[in-house]
Amino acid sequence: MTLALLLTRLYGPLTALSNVRVDVMSALVSFDRVFEVLDLKPGIVEKPDAVPVPRRTGRVDFRDVRFRYPSAAEISLASLEEVATLDRTVNEPVLKGVSFSVEPGQMVALVGPSGAGKSTLSMLISRIYDVTDGQVLVGGVDVRDATLASLRDEIGVVTQDSHLFHETIAENLRYAKPDATDDEIWAALAGAQVADLVRSLPDGLETTVGERGYRFSGGEKQRIAIARLLLKAPSIVILDEATAHLDSESEAAVQRALSVALAGRTALVIAHRLSTVRDADQILVLDGGRIVERGRHDELVAVGGLYAELYRTQFAVADSPTPYVDATVPEPVVMPLGTYVADEAMPPAAAN
User: Fold this and answer.
1) Is the pTM of this model over 0.90?
2) Would you tell me how many other CB atoms lie within 10 Å of the CB of residue 17?
């Protein structure tokens, strides 16, 4: 029995030893793939002679911008895609000769049907992608010639699904400004119309928001994200459908917070809800990658083009048509249930 027990104790190590070669080969292959990813050149590279963007300028210019999303062969690896060869099909252009300027302090709205290229424009400003042709300038400097740090310092973005880390409220706000004091944080929260909510929490600024901020509602998360934006204090603010998925009450609270956040700043607002952009200094209507209309709200509604059609779809209520009534047919008389109507021309069985 002792010998049998010894043999069973030896069987496990001997089996593991026989599998060492497989484990080593698997590890080598995994390391090859890791280094392959590390050696992949990034799509956005800062030039050696890059210059900083001028501080607090707030001007944005698009000059004949054309853009297509890169193919898989340009940005990926075949080993990551689990295919023999990557797709080299050239994608169709998303933007086709877009030109406009945003003056410092102006609010410019981008509207249009889905897939028109609105969000793509915002990603070109912060240089998530580089233009295929043309120029995007911030403060008079081509974003491809600017240092990435200075460019990101000048731009703040609030998306429709703002991300909060699984940390405290204070740590989520200090992500934008690591050296911010508690007084600065409270001032940002007050500007975002969420200071009273944070004060009512038992732990205050030390409240953990949960993974992706699940402990807060959509409107509260958005206002905390706006507070982070106010703490960063960028000169250019990009709002990408910031109130798209909120109820009416939350949207009103977020709009009040945005009115503080946008004061004195250049704003590029992407919205499907036209009620949020009626007061914009300029509205750009995109369709098929081109600007088809531009102007203020009243002007575009009067023109009767695509913007007017979008506006009518959301807000206009057509007058109800008058129903046709045939005078020769008497109107039916509706009586309460169980009511007996005496009529000499009507048999008793049919009168009830």
Assistant:
1) no
2) 9
Q: Does CATH place domain 60-315 in 3.40.50.150? A: no
**Phi/psi of residue 100, each to 5°?**
-170, 165
Rounded Cα distance between 108 and 6, Å, is 80
Q: Where are the domains positioned within the chain?
A: 2-38, 60-315
Identify how many contiguous H helices and E strands the chain contains and give both numbers: 14, 10
Tens-digit pLDDT profile for residues 136-161: 999 888 999 999 988 888 888 888 77
Residue-wise pLDDT tens digits, 267-307: 888 877 777 777 888 889 888 888 888 888 888 888 888 88
How many other C-beta atoms can be found within 10 angstroms of the C-beta atom of residue 191?
A: 21
Provide the strand spans (E) within 178-335: 236-240, 266-270, 282-287, 290-295
| Dist CA 321 CA 315 (whole Å) | 18
Cβ within 8 Å of residue 264, ≥6 positions away: 105
Distance CA 122, CA 314 (A): 24
